Please model this.
Amino acid sequence: MSKLTNRWLALYVLCLGVLMIVLDSTIVTVALPSIQADLGFSGSSLVWVLNAYMLTFGGFLLLGGRLGDLYGNRRLFLIGLVLFTLASLACGLSTTPVLLVAARAVQGLGGAVITAVALALIMNLFREPGDRAKAMGIYGFVCSAGGSLGALLGGFLTGALNWHWIFLVNLPIGVAVYALSLRLLPRETPAAQGRRLDVAGALSVTAGLMLAVYAIVDGNRAGWGSARTLALLGAAALLLSAFLAIEARVRDPLMPLHLFRLRNLATANSVGVAWAAGMFAWFVISALYLQKVLGYEPLRVGLAFVPADLIMAAFSVGLSARTVARFGIRGPLWIGLLLATAGLALFARAPLQGSFLIDVLPGMLLLGLGAGLAFNPVLLAAMSEVSPDESGLASGVVNTSFMMGGALGLAVLASLADVRTERLMSEGAEAVAALNGGYHLAFFLGACLTGAAALAGAVLLRPKASLEADQAESPVPAVEG
Model:
């Protein structure tokens, strides 16, 4: 087997590992009612099946990326894989709420490590612009379409078997990915010789991010203006400020601050925050619209997302790479985000008696086309100006931006949707009509956020050099990997 073939097989293995993480972010949502009935969760404690995962996932992304840079991305990927797989087993065998929530927290830690280093491994496997664009297209499809696949798979497994299997399905996948990773991922020379881990920076940024995520995911329950939420956000801001002060003085910083002077990285992260805020809220709230307004069953909800997935798949297998090769990264990015904005705007007028073909499918298609166009360029932009020994950190930064943007967007837009729903009900609207009115507001605000991301990408992003685009169009030689 040639080394060129090995590189592509390694990519598929990495994407399979990432797919487990992406699936896990949505597969659980469909099974929450069954989990609550079986384990006896209260209504307020049930959200911690989701929140415990988000808390550790968001808190450890930056640290996971930097540890990969210092001690080897391959080694950290394998460690994260073991943690995630064993935690999945513990989740599947859980018989009490405490055990399930604790296991979900460990899952989030493993998922953060895998996500933070996988992108760096892909960037280091594929150095040529043409191959890199193709590889990033496949990775982008996994990240974009995996969420809706999770809803489909979660509905099937929960209905055909039981909720335990949404976690146990990870075991054979995790074992297979681990075995194949040992064979296919190239060994690296760690960069830690003569360099020490920035412990103070690691503690401050991890604690700060975890407090920020906790405040965000708990904001709807505690109230966004409550003393509790404001205190948590204030403490997070202080810790993150302390982190920046530490990074400016320490010899081997966890996050070299010069990264923020890289225009494309800074722009990609800003775009990622706004885009993820609109898109993640859309995914969750559109699923609620299909279930609670149109009356779809969980499996049918998953099937509704298939057209968008097919479009993203078409881009991942070649269209995305050819688009980047022809037009660079700036044009496809802002045009894709503009299409996604139009899709969200269509959902903002979805009626009570909506038809799938008229009121759902057009928005889904625009969102799938937009994600297919934009996801690859935004990742390439984030990684385009960093050195190889900082690729894991840059990967952690962009993934943190997406995660924090998604968590914040969902929390804020869902909260505003609830407020509007309650106001409409107080004015005499029927329950379903009031609920739909709240969803309309969330979709409209999501469109505004995605539109702002499109504008930022069009104005601020530095386009790729024409020479690199020319290289992406021409045949590229095989390299060792």
Observations:
- The domain at 3-185+254-472 is CATH 1.20.1250.20 (Growth Hormone; Chain: A;).
- The chain has 18 helices and no strands.
